[in-house]
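Course exercise 7: structure representation. Students receive a sequence record and must write out the corresponding structure in token form. The form below is the worked example handed out in class, using Polyketide antibiotic transporter (552 residues). Read each field label carefully; the graders check that inputs and outputs are placed in the correct fields and that the protein name is recorded exactly as given.

STUDENT ID: A-19
EXERCISE PROTEIN: Polyketide antibiotic transporter
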Amino acid sequence: MTTAARRPSTRPTHRAAPVPASPLTGLGSLERLYGRLSRRAVLVWTLAMLVLVPASILAIEEAYPDQSALDARAALLDNPSAVMMTGPAFAMDRYTLWAMVANELFLYILIPAAIMSVLLTVRHTRGEEEAGRLEMTRALPTGRLAPGVAALVVVTIANAAPGAAVAIGTLLVGGATADSLAFGLATALTGMVFAGIAAVTAQLTEHAGTATGMALGLLALAFMVRGIGDVIDRQGSWLSWFSPLAWAQQTRVFVDLRWWPLLVSLAAVIALLVVAGVLSRRRDVGSGLRAATGGPASASAALLAPGGLARRLVTGTMIAWAIGLFLFALAFGSLASSLTDVVAEIPAIGEWAPISMDDLTGSFSAYVLRMLAIGPAVLIVSGTLRMRSEETAGRLAGALAGGTSRVRLAGTWFLVVLLEAAALQVLLGLGVGLGVWAATDDTVWIGDMTLAALAYLPAIALCGAFALALYGLHLRLTGLAWAWVVYAALVVFLGDLLGLPEAALDVSPLHHVPLLPSAEFDWLPLLVMGVLAVVLVTVGLVAVRRRDLAAG
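STUDENT ANSWER:
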């Protein structure tokens, strides 16, 4: 009896045999994860664009109701400082509402889009690596390229949403269809350019904060390059083309639309993403191309002193922003001499800004100082809430393990941030004074504006104290501190234009600061805000002692 030779079966031996892995395995799951993590931020940025863009255009239309008013406004662009802070000056022979939108509003739409892109890109790339989550993700059935591609997809969607909001918002208030679409597309592509820049900086360093700082530093450099280039030639010089911000502005939307500059942005996006991909293959997970230097074996006396950790973590950011805001203060102050013709053509200017016809230079300088005070208010909230990120990362627990009490750590931390924000506010007053002095040749403005800056310290301290109280009560509440600062900025920039009622204006702490030196000094609101700040600091310190740490 013979037995037939048995052939090996070609059928799968198990119904659940694993599918061969590809470089993109798990892409869908990661996209959903990153999308879930970013959905609130993207929604806030999109809604902000959808509301603020049409509101700003309507406000401009109301503030400059006729051609003479627009021509007077156009005259401001003869000042290099104005061009530096806004953009190229198109259609100067007949300035229109939409030319003003292109020349002066466009830049302040591009910058938030760029900042959003940098923050999201670093969060989903270097931030995931620094926190160790990427290594854990790769331990699962995940392709090598899946995390990076998922981050790119989410950031692209995040830029498309505000870009669409800009286009829709502009169409709602009567913008031409093609120009409005170019307006939104240019916003989205500029955001993607800075997403590509952030993707590259994320390969260079091991730390998310450093990668973010490098990308935002390049954004500041792009702002300066574009400004200097536009000062050389009012419609954009050769130097302007070295800035990604200029590529969007050179589309000349609402003036003489041309699409081809957007191809430059698109090419830059592709090139930057290719560079980021190549660089990512040259390093290990968790490391950067630029190796971190080893620290000293023991901490310095300054670092071990009370508040030393806060100074180490916060001061660098404060100094960087201080340099930029001081230059803004100088530029704004130097505009004081250019206002006479504008006011003569726009007598209703006092209805949309707290500028007095009787004391034009003084009231304008005081208004500039109020606008700039948003900077220290933002930085004191940011510096105070840095404790939150240190706590969630588990590093704050290490500091507490050294024997420092929570109250002492939080108190000295807040004191350091408060003193640095106060120094920045005084510096801004000095900058505005120097700018006005350069415009008027009157040295008295230097001292007057420096002293006027001191009046904002209680309001700035109140913003920081509110953040500290929220941090002490519960980490999930800290977002309210940002909401208050954003609302204060909205009141400063658009409160009068939007015709907000007095009760709504009073919610902003900056609204209670007298507009010195043109207004009469009133100490009562400053005293009330100072007392409230002390109360909130006390609440924060007591609360932080009673709750558990988030990590560590």
